[in-house]
Amino acid sequence: MKKLLITFFCIPVWFIQSYGFDSAIVKNILPDFAIVQCAGNIGVVSGGFGYSFFKNKMLTSVSYGFVPHFIGGTTVHTIALRNNFKIYEFTLNKENQLVSYANVGVNFEPGEHSYIELPKKYPNGYYATNSFHFPLGLGLRIDSVPKHINFAKSSLFAEVGTLATYIYYEYMAQKRLTETIASLSFGLLIFW
After folding, report:
1. Vertex 139, ends 134 and 143: CA angle to 5°?
2. What is the pLDDT at residue 17?
3. Residue 141 CA, distance from chain mean position
Protein backbone atom coordinates (compact mmCIF):
# COMPACT_ATOMS: atom_id res chain seq x y z
CA MET A 1 0.00 0.00 0.00
CA LYS A 2 2.84 2.39 0.86
CA LYS A 3 4.55 1.74 -2.47
CA LEU A 4 1.28 2.40 -4.28
CA LEU A 5 0.85 5.76 -2.53
CA ILE A 6 4.43 6.81 -3.20
CA THR A 7 4.05 5.83 -6.85
CA PHE A 8 0.73 7.67 -7.07
CA PHE A 9 2.33 10.95 -5.92
CA CYS A 10 5.86 10.67 -7.35
CA ILE A 11 5.27 9.57 -10.95
CA PRO A 12 3.12 12.58 -11.91
CA VAL A 13 5.70 14.96 -10.40
CA TRP A 14 8.55 13.21 -12.25
CA PHE A 15 6.57 13.19 -15.51
CA ILE A 16 5.77 16.90 -15.31
CA GLN A 17 9.36 17.86 -14.45
CA SER A 18 10.88 15.58 -17.10
CA TYR A 19 8.83 16.85 -19.99
CA GLY A 20 9.04 20.56 -19.16
CA PHE A 21 5.37 21.48 -19.10
CA ASP A 22 4.35 25.12 -18.94
CA SER A 23 4.94 26.37 -15.39
CA ALA A 24 1.39 27.81 -15.12
CA ILE A 25 -0.07 24.37 -15.85
CA VAL A 26 2.32 22.72 -13.41
CA LYS A 27 1.42 25.22 -10.70
CA ASN A 28 -2.29 24.39 -11.06
CA ILE A 29 -1.74 20.62 -11.01
CA LEU A 30 0.76 20.18 -8.18
CA PRO A 31 -0.55 20.39 -4.60
CA ASP A 32 -0.06 23.59 -2.60
CA PHE A 33 0.91 21.91 0.67
CA ALA A 34 1.81 18.69 2.46
CA ILE A 35 0.22 17.64 5.74
CA VAL A 36 1.43 15.34 8.52
CA GLN A 37 -0.95 14.64 11.41
CA CYS A 38 -1.01 12.60 14.58
CA ALA A 39 -4.42 11.18 15.65
CA GLY A 40 -7.73 12.86 14.76
CA ASN A 41 -9.87 9.95 13.52
CA ILE A 42 -7.59 9.27 10.54
CA GLY A 43 -4.89 7.14 12.17
CA VAL A 44 -2.10 7.26 14.69
CA VAL A 45 -0.06 8.90 11.94
CA SER A 46 -1.32 10.28 8.65
CA GLY A 47 0.09 12.24 5.77
CA GLY A 48 -1.07 13.68 2.50
CA PHE A 49 -1.27 16.61 0.15
CA GLY A 50 -3.72 19.41 -0.46
CA TYR A 51 -4.83 22.52 -2.27
CA SER A 52 -5.61 26.02 -1.11
CA PHE A 53 -8.64 27.88 -2.45
CA PHE A 54 -10.12 31.38 -2.17
CA LYS A 55 -6.89 33.05 -0.95
CA ASN A 56 -6.28 30.38 1.73
CA LYS A 57 -9.81 30.64 3.13
CA MET A 58 -10.40 26.96 2.30
CA LEU A 59 -7.89 24.12 2.41
CA THR A 60 -8.73 20.72 0.91
CA SER A 61 -6.50 17.74 1.59
CA VAL A 62 -6.37 14.03 0.88
CA SER A 63 -4.53 11.96 3.49
CA TYR A 64 -3.64 8.37 4.18
CA GLY A 65 -3.78 7.31 7.84
CA PHE A 66 -2.50 4.20 9.56
CA VAL A 67 -3.15 2.47 12.88
CA PRO A 68 -0.75 -0.44 13.50
CA HIS A 69 -2.01 -3.74 14.91
CA PHE A 70 -0.12 -3.38 18.19
CA ILE A 71 -2.02 -0.15 18.98
CA GLY A 72 -5.54 -0.83 17.68
CA GLY A 73 -5.79 -4.61 17.96
CA THR A 74 -6.15 -4.72 14.17
CA THR A 75 -4.38 -2.86 11.39
CA VAL A 76 -6.46 0.03 10.08
CA HIS A 77 -5.87 2.01 6.87
CA THR A 78 -7.89 5.18 6.29
CA ILE A 79 -8.19 7.53 3.34
CA ALA A 80 -9.51 10.95 4.32
CA LEU A 81 -10.75 13.97 2.41
CA ARG A 82 -10.84 17.09 4.59
CA ASN A 83 -12.05 20.63 3.95
CA ASN A 84 -10.90 23.32 6.38
CA PHE A 85 -12.69 26.67 6.39
CA LYS A 86 -11.01 29.70 7.95
CA ILE A 87 -13.20 31.31 10.63
CA TYR A 88 -10.95 34.15 11.73
CA GLU A 89 -7.30 35.20 11.51
CA PHE A 90 -5.45 37.03 14.29
CA THR A 91 -2.18 38.73 13.36
CA LEU A 92 0.40 37.98 16.05
CA ASN A 93 3.32 39.77 14.40
CA LYS A 94 4.80 40.35 10.95
CA GLU A 95 5.61 36.66 10.33
CA ASN A 96 2.91 34.83 12.35
CA GLN A 97 -0.86 34.57 12.30
CA LEU A 98 -3.17 32.56 14.54
CA VAL A 99 -5.97 31.06 12.45
CA SER A 100 -9.17 29.49 13.76
CA TYR A 101 -10.96 27.07 11.44
CA ALA A 102 -13.72 24.51 11.16
CA ASN A 103 -13.48 21.33 9.14
CA VAL A 104 -15.72 18.71 7.59
CA GLY A 105 -14.77 15.69 5.58
CA VAL A 106 -15.18 12.07 4.63
CA ASN A 107 -13.10 9.14 5.90
CA PHE A 108 -13.04 5.79 4.11
CA GLU A 109 -11.69 2.69 5.82
CA PRO A 110 -11.39 -0.26 3.41
CA GLY A 111 -10.35 -2.87 6.01
CA GLU A 112 -11.69 -6.32 6.71
CA HIS A 113 -13.67 -5.08 9.74
CA SER A 114 -15.45 -2.32 7.83
CA TYR A 115 -18.51 -2.72 5.71
CA ILE A 116 -20.04 -0.64 2.94
CA GLU A 117 -22.97 -3.05 3.03
CA LEU A 118 -23.57 -4.99 6.26
CA PRO A 119 -23.33 -8.79 6.20
CA LYS A 120 -26.58 -10.73 6.52
CA LYS A 121 -25.62 -11.97 10.02
CA TYR A 122 -26.44 -8.53 11.48
CA PRO A 123 -30.08 -7.66 12.28
CA ASN A 124 -31.69 -5.42 9.66
CA GLY A 125 -31.62 -1.74 10.68
CA TYR A 126 -29.72 -2.35 13.93
CA TYR A 127 -26.21 -1.41 12.81
CA ALA A 128 -25.02 1.27 10.42
CA THR A 129 -22.32 0.66 7.84
CA ASN A 130 -18.90 1.65 9.11
CA SER A 131 -16.64 2.11 6.09
CA PHE A 132 -17.52 5.79 5.70
CA HIS A 133 -17.39 8.38 8.48
CA PHE A 134 -17.95 12.11 8.45
CA PRO A 135 -15.50 14.02 10.68
CA LEU A 136 -16.28 17.43 12.12
CA GLY A 137 -13.78 19.62 13.93
CA LEU A 138 -12.59 22.95 15.20
CA GLY A 139 -8.97 23.93 15.32
CA LEU A 140 -6.28 26.53 15.70
CA ARG A 141 -3.14 26.81 13.64
CA ILE A 142 -0.17 29.13 13.72
CA ASP A 143 0.89 30.16 10.21
CA SER A 144 4.56 31.17 10.10
CA VAL A 145 6.67 32.51 7.28
CA PRO A 146 10.10 30.90 7.75
CA LYS A 147 13.10 33.17 7.33
CA HIS A 148 15.82 30.69 6.39
CA ILE A 149 13.89 27.80 4.81
CA ASN A 150 12.70 27.63 1.24
CA PHE A 151 8.97 27.22 1.98
CA ALA A 152 6.21 29.79 1.50
CA LYS A 153 4.96 29.10 5.03
CA SER A 154 4.53 26.40 7.63
CA SER A 155 1.68 25.84 10.05
CA LEU A 156 1.43 23.96 13.32
CA PHE A 157 -2.11 23.01 14.28
CA ALA A 158 -4.17 21.49 17.06
CA GLU A 159 -7.72 20.33 16.49
CA VAL A 160 -10.62 18.92 18.48
CA GLY A 161 -12.84 16.71 16.39
CA THR A 162 -15.43 13.99 16.36
CA LEU A 163 -17.34 11.84 13.91
CA ALA A 164 -20.95 12.56 12.97
CA THR A 165 -21.69 8.92 13.81
CA TYR A 166 -20.65 9.49 17.44
CA ILE A 167 -22.95 12.49 17.75
CA TYR A 168 -25.81 10.51 16.21
CA TYR A 169 -25.39 7.57 18.62
CA GLU A 170 -25.10 9.90 21.62
CA TYR A 171 -28.31 11.63 20.53
CA MET A 172 -30.14 8.34 19.92
CA ALA A 173 -29.08 7.06 23.34
CA GLN A 174 -30.38 10.34 24.80
CA LYS A 175 -27.12 10.91 26.60
CA ARG A 176 -25.33 14.14 27.24
CA LEU A 177 -22.46 14.63 24.81
CA THR A 178 -19.35 13.46 26.62
CA GLU A 179 -15.64 13.85 26.16
CA THR A 180 -15.44 10.22 24.99
CA ILE A 181 -16.63 11.18 21.52
CA ALA A 182 -13.97 13.87 21.03
CA SER A 183 -10.44 13.42 19.74
CA LEU A 184 -7.45 15.71 19.80
CA SER A 185 -4.97 15.88 16.94
CA PHE A 186 -1.77 17.75 16.20
CA GLY A 187 -0.03 18.32 12.92
CA LEU A 188 2.09 20.28 10.52
CA LEU A 189 1.34 21.88 7.15
CA ILE A 190 4.14 22.86 4.78
CA PHE A 191 3.20 25.24 1.95
CA TRP A 192 5.44 25.83 -1.05
Report:
1. 130
2. 54
3. 14
**Predicted TM-score of the model (pTM):** 0.78
Residue 39 corresponds to which amino acid? A
Amino acid at 129: T
Q: Where are the beta strands (DSSP E) in the chain?
A: 33-38, 45-53, 58-67, 76-91, 96-108, 132-133, 135-144, 153-163, 183-191
In angstroms, the CA 114 to CA 24 distance is: 41
Residues 139 and 159: their CA atoms lie apart, in Å, by 4
Report angle CA 84, 86, 87 to the nearest 5 degrees.
125
User: Phi/psi at 174 (nearest 5 deg)?
Assistant: 55, 45
Closest CA to 40 of 84, 7, 74, 8: 84
As a whole number of angstroms, the distance between CA 101 and CA 45 comes to 21
Stronger pLDDT, 22 or 79, i.e. the higher one? 79
Contacts of 42 by beta carbon, 8 Å cutoff, 6+ apart: 63, 65, 78, 80, 107, 135, 185
Range of lowest pLDDT (9-13, 76-80, 167-171): 9-13
Domains and CATH numbers, the chain: 1-30 (no CATH), 31-191 (2.40.160.20)
Provide the mean pLDDT of the chain: 82
